[in-house]
TrEMBL record:
Any Pfam family the entry gives: CarbopepD_reg_2
Lineage start: Bacteria, Pseudomonadati, Bacteroidota, Flavobacteriia, Flavobacteriales
Signal sequence bounds: 1-20
Domain (TonB-dependent receptor plug): residue spans on this chain: 147-226
Locations listed in the record: Cell outer membrane
Membership in a protein family: Belongs to the TonB-dependent receptor family.
Sorted UniProt keywords: Cell outer membrane, Membrane, Receptor, Signal, Transmembrane, Transmembrane beta strand, Transport
Protein name: TonB-dependent receptor
Domain Outer membrane protein beta-barrel: 382-800
Membrane topology: Multi-pass membrane protein
Amino acid sequence: MIRFIKITILFIATTLSLQANNTPEKQDLIDVTGRVIDEISGIGLEFATVAFLDLNNKVINGTITDRGGNYKMSIEPGIYNIRFEYIGFKTQTLKNQNLQQNTLLKTIKLSESAETLDEIVVRAETTEVEIRLDKKVYNIGKDLTVGGATVGDALDNVPSVTVDADGAISLRGNQNVRILINGRPSAIAGFGSTDALQSLPADAIERVEVITSPSARYDAEGTAGILNIILRKDKVLGFNGSIQVNYREPTGYGGTGNVNYRTKKFNIFNTTSFNVRNSPGQGVFRNQFFSSSVVNPLVIETRDIDRNDVSLNTNLGMEYYLNKKSSITTSFFYSEGEDEDKTINITDEFNPDNELAVTRTRIEDETEDDSNYQISLNYINRFNDDGHVLTADLQYGIDNEGETSLIAERNTFPAIEELPSEFITTDEEGNEFLAQVDYVFPINENQQFEAGYRGNFEETTTDFVVNEQLIPGGEFIKNDSLSNIFTYTENVNALYTQYGNKFGKFSFLAGLRFEHTRLAGEVSAADVDNADNLVINFDNDYPGLFPTLNLNYEISDNENITFGYNRRINRPRGRFVNPFPSRSSEANIFQGNPNLNPAFANAFDIGYLKKWGKTLTLTSSVYYQLETDAFERIQEDTGLQTPNGIPIIRTIPINLSTNERIGFELGLLYNPTKWLRVNGSFNFFQFTTEGDFNGIDYGAQNTSYFSRLSTKVSLPYKIEWQTNAIYRGPTNNAQTRNEDILFLNVAFSKDIFNDKATIAINIRDVFNSRKRLTYTETDTFISDSELQFRVRTFNLSFIYRFNQKKEKTRNNDRDNGDDDF
């Protein structure tokens, strides 16, 4: 291993020296190209080293392979020994190669070296974020601050991504983002909702891919782009894995086991985790009403939230190698959660003289049981070593969720008075079936053709029952005007094709995707209150063409410019079209809009990448997006009042006519020394919306930005120190302004037991400052609020690795939805 590191350093030094002393006589050089692959799986090995040596085995020059295992080297004509090396694999050497003209060498197949596995511990770390032409790849395992955290927490550290207090995920400030698991829609992601990601542990995933200019191979869903979450699956021969246990404060504990057993014929993998979490939160809501009919025009709600969650997740799978070219993988995912939440809402009402008139306490005890099942089957056939591949996938998932809420109220001022209670039950059942076929045909070394089909069929049924007491302490009677059964269907059939070519330093990938969408909703209720004249039942079809184009120009080996264009769609989820209001707050409700149509967007992205050796990497992009029928949440006074005389404020999603967005993004990866690594990003954007609803103009312009700075310092005695600072600038729409937020996460880790184990501590939100402050102003009311979804947390974790490298070699699976051209 030491010999390998020395050779690698020598390669880099030699390459830099040769580049520094280059003369204009490049016509004397020849190009040598080839590919390095895993002998068993046929997968290209990224970052394999290719060394060109003279006949005395002195290194003359060298390079590394790209993500597909391909390499290209410009050298002087001559006779060379060519050595191919990769961590954990047996070295191969091509001897006495007489290279006098441009040459395509045979594909090199490297086999893993089981004998040296236990000796390999890679101390040199890459940066936490890998930059590729069409995406950023975030390696979860390298971030110390997410130990014991959830996937939602981990995403909040990813450049370009933000997660708000309610768990909503945004990409470049836009919430219309598509979540994929292993390149596909999945029940693991909660059928389009992000709720499941708040219980899935960060330890269960290997990396997150941020795809801002997707090609035609990907779903057209998500006008902002795609977040692709890749689950752990090791590729190392033999039995290996890790066990991690966590303790956190506020009270919480859990553990994750990750095991893998691979032979030359099959690979069995499993990740299982169990977690108990207590997550307190709090909020204050202040509403000022202007209507003379309101008896008490000032209402202040103080909310305390205590969440107690228990979750179990397991992902079990096996890949069976039919031969060296093809394999079948089957996997089963199961998750189960039990949540007990208690919300205490104290409401103070003030009369026009600003005197306290009424104090009311509302206590909601909520329990939730949910489970997800998913079984997947994947077949892959690699016809040759040049990337000619056929893959087929089948996937079926079931999502069950049951929720009960007991809401009790009583006045405590000016006199104690018990009020009628509510008992609400929600049973939700969803199922999803996916069928997918992808075909990749390399026409020659520079050209590639792809085509495929995907069918995704989802149905979710929500049974919502409201039982109310007519008098305090009386029996509960079903409220037929609020109780309902809502069935939502989303079926998408898609065909795509794309073609890529490379001409010298210029390459392009052009594609066209056709998607036919069927959205249907059906309400079953005894008494439907439809004062807004909403279309309760609907069945609509939306066929559409979605072209994509990605261009790349290589200015040099370390510098390039990219251009991306794609047309995308944002489909409303079930909650957004369910016409029945939520009941978590009596006076502040959320109601879906069955009249909501899909939004369509045209997006453009120009990117620039520049590398200065391994010390500094600069990425930047300018992007523009024009979205029609864009979604916007607005607040309005319904004109209704609670039984206690408080006006009911409704939040409802609507289609605005347009949303024009322009932005700039900058990222820096700086590794000045072995002991310091710095990763920073900055995103500035401005969007302009136009549109009206119920005669009110909701047009607005918003300018905002957010930034991150992450530093990792290697201290003596194998101690690592990481600090993440995150700042989000203020945002606004036509009604509401969200104030800026700054918070800090820190972590320390130390390797012990001869680097087989690591102990770490992290603190999330060090200064307890992650609070959402909003201010809303309309013609009839003013509302401001402060919400802290979760307080500061401390986490202590211990991980033990057996027969496993500390930093794994990369998994270059071609069946996870990546574009390899």
